[in-house]
Design brief:
There is one protein chain. The chain is mostly beta strands and about 375 residues long. It has 3 domains: about 150 residues, no CATH class; about 80 residues, Carboxypeptidase-like, regulatory domain (Immunoglobulin-like, Sandwich); about 90 residues, no CATH class. The chain has 5 helices and 22 strands. The strands form 4 sheets. Strands 1, 9, 10, 11, 12, 13, 14, 15, 16, 19, 20 and 22 form a 12-stranded mixed β-sheet that branches. Strands 4-3-6-7 form a 4-stranded antiparallel β-sheet, with no helix packed on it. A 3-stranded mixed β-sheet has the order 5-2-8, with no helix packed on it. About 40% of the residues are buried. About 5% of the residues have low confidence.
Length: about 375
Amino acid sequence: MRSTVQSSLLKETISCGLLGILSFVLSASAQPNPQAAIAGRVLDDSTSAPVSNVNVFVANTTLGCSTDERGLFEIRNIPFGTHEIVVSRIGYSLHSFRTSLTESRTRRFEIRLKPMSVQLEEVMVSAPDPVEWRKQLQKFNDLFLGNTQNAEHCKITNAEILDFKVDGLDVFEATARQPVEIENLALGYHVQMLLKTFKVENEVMILEGMPKFTELRPSTPAQEVEWRKNRMRAFRGSLRHFLISLFNRQLGHDGYSIFRLDFLRMDRVASSRKLVTEDEILSYGPGTGQKTLRFSGFLEVEYSGDVESGYNLLHKAGTTGQVSWLTLNYFAITITERGSVNEAFPTKVFGYWSWKRMADALPLDFEPGKE
C-alpha cells in the first residue's frame, strides 16, 4: 500500500489515495475473475539452507502462508495484476519484491533471506514524555485510521511500538519498530501493517506500507451480517469502486459523473468544468485485464449512491452527492479489472476519498458480489 495525500484544508482532513493501491465493481463480480499462483522456496542467504516458518504474503490481501520445513511455500487464487510480495521472519532482514501476474499459472521464485547481524553495543535510550507521546498518538490515530464511523470501532493494539517526530507546525512523522497491529471490529479484519513511511509535510501526507489482512471469526451470525453490510458500505463510492466502474465503462450505471478541471478549487464556489466520458480518458492497456488511464489536470468525481454519512468537509456549489478529486503522478497509469493500479504512488486524491483511511480499507481479494 502506497498512498499520497494532499489537501488545502489540512486541519479538517488530509486527502489520502489509499492503495492506488486499494480499492472494486459490483457488476464485474458476476464474471469469474482470472487468478494466478506463486510458489517457491526460501533459503538462508549465507548458508543456502532452507528456512521454515517464514511468513510469505501478498500485500494488501488476505493471501499468505508460512514455509514448511523444506522452506517451500505456495499461494493460490491471486488476482491478476502487479503485486508486492512480502517475505519476513524474525532474525532476518525483511524482503519484498513486486511481480506482475497476468497468466493463470504458477510462477516460481527462489528467495534468499539475509540474516540480521546482532550488535551488542551499549545504547542510551531516553523515554518519551508520556503526555506528549499520547498527544501525538491521538494525532496519528486520526490521520492513519481516520474519523469515519468505522474508525470508532478500529484500534491499534500495539501502539507502544510507535515513535513520533514533530518539526514545527508543518512536519509530523511516525515510525514503527515492529508491524502495526490493527483490530477492525467494524469490518471484521485483523490488519498487520509493515509501515515503511508515514509523513505529513506542508499539507501532504505520504503513507507507504505493506498490509496483511486476516478475516476475524464472527462471534454471532448477527455480527457476520453486520460485517458484510459494513464492508459493502465501505466499498461503495470508494476509489476502487470507481476504478472498476471506469474499467467496465459503467460510470453512469454505478452512480458516477466525472468532469475535467484545469486546476483544483476545493471550496464552495462552482468552477468551470467539462463533462468527461470513459472513452476520453481510457484506452486498452499493455496486457489482458488491464487498461490505461490518461488525463491532464484533475478529475472531479461525483458519486450519487449511498455513502457513509459524516463527511462534512465541504459542499461544492453545482454538485450533488459526495465529491472527490483525482490527479495522476504519471503521464498515464495502468488499472486492472479489479481496481488495482500497477504503478507505485500513482495518484493524489482529495475530498471524500481523502476522508477514508485505514479503518475503511478492504483487501484486494475482497469480492463485493459475494457479500
